[in-house]
Amino acid sequence: MLGEKPLDVCDATTERLVDEENHVMPTLTINNITVQAPEGATVLEAARAAGIHIPTLCHLPGVHAPGACRVCLVEVEGARTLMASCVTPANEGMRVHTNSLRARNGRRDVVELLLSEHEGDCTTCSRSEDCELRAIAREAGVKDIQYRGERRTTRLDYSTKGLVRDTGKCILCRRCVAVCQDVESVGAIAPQERGFGTYIGPAFHAPLSEVTCVQCGQCSAVCPVGAIGERDQIDEVWRALDNPSLHVVVQTAPAIRAALGECFDLPPGTLVTGKMVSALRRLGFEAVFDTDFSADLTIMEEGHELLARLQGALAGGANKSPLPMFTSCCPAWIQFAEHFAPDMLDNLSTCKSPQQMLGALAKSYYAEKIGKKPEEIFVVSIMPCTAKKIRMRSGRDA
Amino acid sequence: MGSGGLVVMDEDSCMVDVARFFLEFVQEESCGKCTPCRVGTKRMLEIVTRICEGKGEESDIERLEKLGRTIQQTALCGLGQSAPNPVLSTLRHFRDEYVAHIRDKRCPAGVCADLVRSPCQNACPAGVNVPGYVSLIGEGRTAEALHLHRENNPFAAVCARVCFHPCESKCRRATLDEAVSIRGVKRFMADAEQGLQLPSTRIDPACAKRKVAIIGAGPAGLSCGYFLARLGYRPDIFEAAPRPGGLLLQGIPAYRLPREVIDAEVAMIERLGVTIHTGQRLGRDITLSGLREAGYESVFLGIGAPLGTRLALPGEDAKGVVDAMQFLRDFNLTGTAPVGKNVVIIGGGNSAIDAARTAIRLGAAQVTVVYRRTRDQMPAFPHEVQEAEREGVRIRFLLSPTEVLVKDGAVAGLRCVPMELQGFDRAGRRRAVPSQQPTVDVPADMLITAIGQQLDLSTFGSDVMPKTSRDGYVSVDPRTGQTDILWLFAGGDAASGPSSVVEAVRDGERAAVAIDRMLSGKSRAFWREHRSVDTFFDPDADPSTAPRTHQRLLAIEKRLGRFDEVELCWTETDARREAARCLRCDYRETCG
Questions:
Q1: Which of A105, A113, A194 lies at the smallest CB-CB distance from B35?
Q2: CA A257 to centroid of chain Cα atoms
Q3: Residue B2: per-residue pLDDT
Q4: Which of B38, B39, B74 sits opposite A106 (nearest CB)?
Q5: DSSP classification of residue B397
Q6: Burial code of A230-239, b = ≥16 C-beta within 10 A, e = fewer?
Q7: Is A307 helix (H, G, I), strand (E, B) or coil?
Q8: B28 in contact with A at a CB cutoff of 8 Å?
Q9: How far apart are alpha carbons B560 and B354 in whole angstroms?
Q10: Could B73 and A81 be called an inter-chain contact, meaning their C-beta atoms sit closer than 8 Å?
C-alpha cells in the first residue's frame, strides 16, 4: 500500500478516511502540509508518500529500520524529545516538523558525533565518491567536528577472497547484519560487545573466512560507508600486465557490458560492449574473451549431465546420480549449500561455472593453440559479484 | 541526579568528580545502539575527565551544556535521555567548582588527584607547601622550612598567630585522631628564625627601573610588594597610618599578634627593595591620577574595608557609641582608647571578640558581647571565643538590637528583641527570627558595634574610581585582581569584603604576578613551581600514635590588664613530635 494514492472514502462508523481495504488512514500534518498516511505507516513513510524528504542513514527500505542512527529525527509537537521518523508510527492529528530549528540542530549534532568517532580517511577511502555519511554530513550542515576524542577501533579483516572489512569506518547502522540474517539467512556477522566498543563482526573474534559467510557481498552492497567492500585487486592485474613473461587475457561476464557505462555517466543499462573491448585492449590485455561463449559450453555440459541422471533414474536400480539436479554458477549459492544443506550436495550439478570453464580452456586449449605453456597464461575475470572471487586461485598457480 | 534518588554530600565531595563518576557508569551501561548515547556520553566523559585532570578549556562548560541538551533530545531510550542530567545539574548548581577546575586549575573539595597534592596545601589560599615545611620541622631543619613557607607566604610569623588554618580543617590526620596542629608547628618554626631570612629573589635592572605603586601596607599590599620585589621590581607602598601593617596592626590586638612580629616581617619585605611611605593617605596626599602622572605604570589597591557598617538604629549617634574598627585602631595606633565601665559589643565576628578582649584588658568592669544567633553560628574563631569567656567576657546569644537607649545624649543601654531559630536562609544557615518574648534592655555606658566592614569610597573623591560590586567592594577579575581600569589592581578586604590574612596574601601575590605579566609580557612566578622536599618518609611504617599537642596559653591572671601574647611558643620536642604526626599525603612513589 505504500506510496499508492489513497481513495477519498470515509469509514461510516468513524468518519475517518479508509483505503480500499477498509484500513483506517491517519491524517497528520507534516511541515503544515496535510498528509493522509497509509495505515501502519511510519512518519517517514507518510512523508515520503507526500513527497517530503527526511534524510536517513541506517534505514534500508523494506529491510531494516532500527532507529539507531538518529539522523531521521523530526520534531513532533507535544513530544518531549525529537522522534526518529523511521520508527515512529504516523498517528491521527500528529503535527510534525522535519526542518524546524530543533530538528535541524538535533540532526546536525548527531551527525557531528558520528563523524567524531569515525576512524577513516576520506582521501584514501574506496567509498569516498558515494559515501552516504559524507553526503549526510553535507546535507546536515556539519561545518566542524568540535569533539576530539577516542575513535572507533580499526579491526581489518582481509581473511576472505571477496570481501574486506574495516570496523573503524563502521557507523553501526546494522544494515549488513539485517541483510545477512534476514535476507540471506546466513547470519555470519552481528554486533559484538557493547557500548562504545561495539563492532560488527563474526562471533568470538573469528575472521570472516572461518564462519558461515558465503561471500555473497550483499553486506558490502548495503553498507553506506567504506566499512565493508569488495577486495580490490587492480594492483595485481597491473603487475601481471607489466610482466613481459606473462600472456594476460581477460574474460567479461554478460552483466559487465551493460553496467560499465554507468561508471562513465551513461544512462544505466547502456550497452558498451565495443568500448569495453577496446578499452581492455588498450590496457594491454592480449585477448578479450566473452563469458557468453563458455556459458554455451556450460549449457551443453549440464544438459548432458541432466540426461545422464534422468537415464540413470529411469533405468532404475542404485540411484547413483540423484534427482532433482540443481545448478547455479553462483559460488555463494554453492557455499550456502555446503554450509547449510550439505545433505543436498549430491543434487548439485558437477559442472563448472561458465567463468571456470573459460579459465580452464584458456590454460589448455587456448594455450596450446598459441603455443604458450599454461603457467605463462594469466586469466583475469571481470565479474559482477564478489562471490566469484572464491573461484580465484591465489599464489603462483594463479 | 537524574535517577530520582537522594545522595547527601558535603563540601568534601567534588561535584565535577561526581559528574565524571556518573558518566563512567553511563558509558558502561550504554548499549551502544544509538549515536547520541554511545558517542555523546563518551565525549562528555572525555571533557569532564580533562577538566578533572586540570586540562579544562574555557569553552568546555558551553560544550558540555550543548552536548547534554542534544543527547537529552536525540537519544533513543530513557538511559540516554537522562544520562546528561547529572552533568547538567552539577553545572547548574555547582558551576563555581567547574570554573575553579578550568580557570584556576584548582579542586576546592580537594579530591581530583591531578590538581591536589595534599588536602592541606590545596586548602591553603596561598598554596603553601604544608607537608613540605612540616616535615622539615620534623627533622629540625627550621631554616629550610621557613624558606619553603616564604616561597608562597611571607607572613610565617604573623600567620602562625592569626591564621584560621583551613589546612587543619582538611587535615587527613583528623580521620585517625585529631588534625595536626599545623599552626602550632609553624609558630615554633617562625620563632626559631635567626636574624632576617631573605627569600630567593630575581635581580632584574629593567624591572627595577619601572614604577609600581601599592596603596595600603596591610597584608594584601605588603604581599604584593613582597612578590613584586622578588620579581625584580622596587615598588612603593603608600600607607595612610603612621606605621605599616594595616589591620594586622590596627585591628588585631597585641595579645594575639605582638607588634615586634609584624615589624620584623615588614622589615624583611623592605629589605627586598620595597619602600614604604607612611602618612600618605589616598585622596588627601596622593591620588590615583597623580600617581599615573608621576610615572607609575601600575597601581595595586590594598586599602581594606576600614569602615564599620552602621547599625541603622535610633540612638546610634549618641555619645559612647563607637565602631569596633575605630576603637581598635585608636588603641593600637595611639596606645590609649577611652573605655567605659559597662561595655556592650554588638556582633559575633573576630572584630567583636578582639574589641571585647581589648576592652577587658583596658579595665572595663563588665564586658558583654551581644550576638543575634547562637554560639556555633558565630563567625569568630572558636578558640578566641573560648579565651574571651575565660578572661571574663560574657556572651549573650539570640539577642538582636532594636534601639540604642540614650540618656542626656549619652548611651545608657541597648534594647534587644530575643530571637529564635526557625527555618534556613539561602546560605543554609539557620535563620534567626524575632520571637514573641518581651524586649530585653542591656545596660551599657559604651557601645561598640562590630557588625560588618565597608570599603571607604570617599578616598577616591572625584578622581578615577574602579567599578564596585553590588556589595560595595572593588570588582576584580578573579584570576588576576585587575579592576575595570587596566592598570589598576585590587585585593584583600577592599575587593572581597572582610576576609583573612592568608587570603589577602593570595590576592597580593595574584596581582603581583598579573602586574608583572602586564609589564613584561611573561609569566615569571618561579615560586609557583612545585619543588619536592628531600625529607625522609617511610610509607610502610605505621603512623605516629602521639595525640595532638595542645596549645600552651598564658595563665589568666597574667593576662589581665596587659597585652602580653597569650599563645606561648612550643618547645622543639613538642614541635618535632607534632610534625611527625603528619601522614605526608604529599608523598608520591616517584619523587617523594
A1: A113
A2: 20
A3: 53
A4: B74
A5: -
A6: bbeeeeebee
A7: helix
A8: yes
A9: 14
A10: yes
Lowest mean pLDDT among A312-316, B180-184, B368-372, B483-487: A312-316
Report the b/e string of B262-297 with b at 16+ CB within 10 A. Answer: bebbbebbbebbbebeeebebbeebbbeebbeeebe
DSSP string, B416-469: EEEEEEEEE-TTSPEEEEE-SSPPEEEE-SEEEE-S-EE--GGGGTTS----B-
The arithmetic mean of pLDDT across residues B102-114, rounded, is 93
Contacts of residue B80 in chain A, CB cutoff 8 Å? Answer: none
Listed in sequence order, the residues at least 6 apart from B176 whose beta carbon sits closer than 8 Å to its beta carbon are B543, B583
CA–CA separation, A354 and B249 (whole Å) = 106
β-sheet bridge partners, residue A201: A190
Beta bridge partners of B343: B367, B446
Mean pLDDT of chain B: 93
Q: Which residues of B touch A109 (CB under 8 A)?
A: 36, 66-67, 70, 74
Q: Nearest CA to CA, how far is A229 from chain B (Å)?
A: 22
- Tell me how far apart the alpha carbons of residues A203 and A200 are, in angstroms, rounded to a whole number: 9
Q: Which of B36, B42, B63 sits opposite A110 (nearest CB)?
A: B36
Please identify which residue in the block is written with the cell numbers 518531549: A80
C-beta atoms of A73 and B74 within 8 A? yes
**Chain B residues 66-85 within an 8 A CB cutoff of chain A:** 66-67, 70, 72-76, 81
Contact B30 A195 (CB under 8 A): yes
Closest approach of B73 to chain A, Cα-based (Å): 5
From B293, B304, B302, B301, select the one nearest B211 (Cα to Cα): B293
pLDDT reading at A18 higher than 80: no
Q: How confident is the model at residue A25 (pLDDT cuts 50, 70, 90)?
A: confident
Across chain A, what does the average pLDDT equal?
Answer: 91
The answer to whether the CB of B278 falls within 8 A of the CB of B239 is yes
Mutate to test the interface with A, among B55, B73, B77, B85 (most CBs of A within 10 A): B73
- Across the interface, whether the CB atoms of A70 and B32 are under 8 A apart is answered no
**Residue A117: what pLDDT?**
95
Question: In Å, how far are A333, B165, B303, B460 from B496, measured between CA atoms?
Answer: 81, 19, 12, 18
Question: Among B304, B329, B311, which residue's Cα sits nearest to residue B503?
Answer: B304
Tell me the percentage of chain A whose pLDDT exceeds 90: 85
Closest chain B CA to residue A151: B39
ipTM of this predicted structure: 0.84
List residues of A whose CB lies inside 8 A of any B CB: 66-70, 73, 81-82, 84, 102, 105-106, 109-110, 113-114, 116-117, 146-147, 149-150, 172, 191, 193-198
Counted residue by residue, chain A has a size of 398
The amino acid at residue B293 is E
**Average pLDDT for residues A22-35, to the nearest whole number?**
88
Pick A116's closest partner by Cβ from B39, B75, B76: B39
Least confident of A14-18, A367-371, B469-473: A14-18
Nearest chain B alpha carbon to A114? B35
Place of cell 579595665: B363
pLDDT in tens, A167-225: 999 999 999 999 999 999 999 999 999 999 999 999 999 999 999 999 999 999 999 99
**What is the pLDDT confidence band of residue B1, given thresholds at 50, 70 and 90?**
low
Q: What number of residues does chain B have? A: 592
Distance CA A100, CA A29 (A): 14
Q: Cell numbers at residue B494, please?
A: 577592599
What does DSSP say about strands A33-36 and A156-157: parallel, antiparallel, or unpaired?
A: unpaired
Q: Are B237 and B274 in contact (CB under 8 A)?
A: yes
Cβ-contact B21, B13 below 8 angstroms: no
